[in-house]
Amino acid sequence: MKNRFLLTAFLLAIGANAFAQAPAAPAGGRGAARVTRPALFFKEEWKQTEKGGEHPIVFDSTLSNPSLELKVYGPSSKELLLTGDAGNELNPIHVWTGMCTTPCAVAFKHKTAYADLSGLARLRWNTKVSGFHQIRPIVKLADGTWLVGDHTDGTVRDWLFTEFSFGDVRWMKLDINRAVTTGTILDKVDLSKVDEIGFVDLMPGSGHGQGGWVDVAQVEVYGGSVPRTGSSASQ
């Protein structure tokens, strides 16, 4: 009986000592800051002309989001086409690379803010492809560096919404004028201040028919917002 009493007293003493040495809870009873997903940075669904049908991109009226500027890149980027119909899930309004005879890229630039694509930032888009073509994300950093990611999307059978985290993507430098990769996979990339965000088709298009091309409809980017200041806002 005595031994049991001594053992109980010993255990109580250990517990009291551990409690005394435990770190105090933060003021207000709150623990570590909660990691949350970033808000929507921009969304683009494209805008069809009054005539409709398939036609070259009309820069002053193609975008539905007035906060964005549309940029196109690649030697044959003038051959990028807009087609599709609003409300048609089998043929939504989208950009099509089928007539590009070289790799082509499309990017969006927010007029008043850079994007912070660090942390849990992600991209969601509605895409479809033909042949062996794939859609890859591209970004232009605030210092002018262009990068292309190893993540690919696009299914042949149907339009599908897919999304990915920017933090899971490995990046390589991109020669934006030719829309081709250069160098090797980069060890580390800082995406906390991104000037433009878009996509690239690294293969020439095959024209009409089921040959090879990519379609990109709705695009949503979730990330932080970093205000543009001074002259950088108009660059």
Fill in the keyword field for this structure.
1 helix; Jelly Rolls; seven-stranded antiparallel sheet; disordered C terminus; mainly beta; 235 residues
| CATH H-level superfamily | Galactose-binding lectin
Strand content: 35-45%
Outline: globular
CATH architecture: Sandwich
The portion of residues assigned to helices is under 10%
Q: Would you summarize the structure shown here?
A:
By secondary structure, the protein is mainly beta. The chain has 1 helix and 16 strands.
What does this structure look like?
The protein starts with a helix and ends in an 8-residue tail after the last strand. With 235 residues, the protein is mainly beta. The strands form three sheets. Strands 1, 2, 4, 5, 8, 11 and 15 form a seven-stranded antiparallel beta sheet that branches. It has one helix at 2-21; strands at 40-44, 55-56, 68-73, 81-83, 94-96, 104-110, 113-116, 122-130, 136-141, 146-149, 160-165, 171-175, 180-182, 194-201, 213-222, 224-227. The chain has one domain: Sandwich (Jelly Rolls), CATH 2.60.120. A hairpin with a 4-residue loop joins strand 12 and strand 13. It is 9% helix and 36% strand. The chain has one helix and 16 strands.
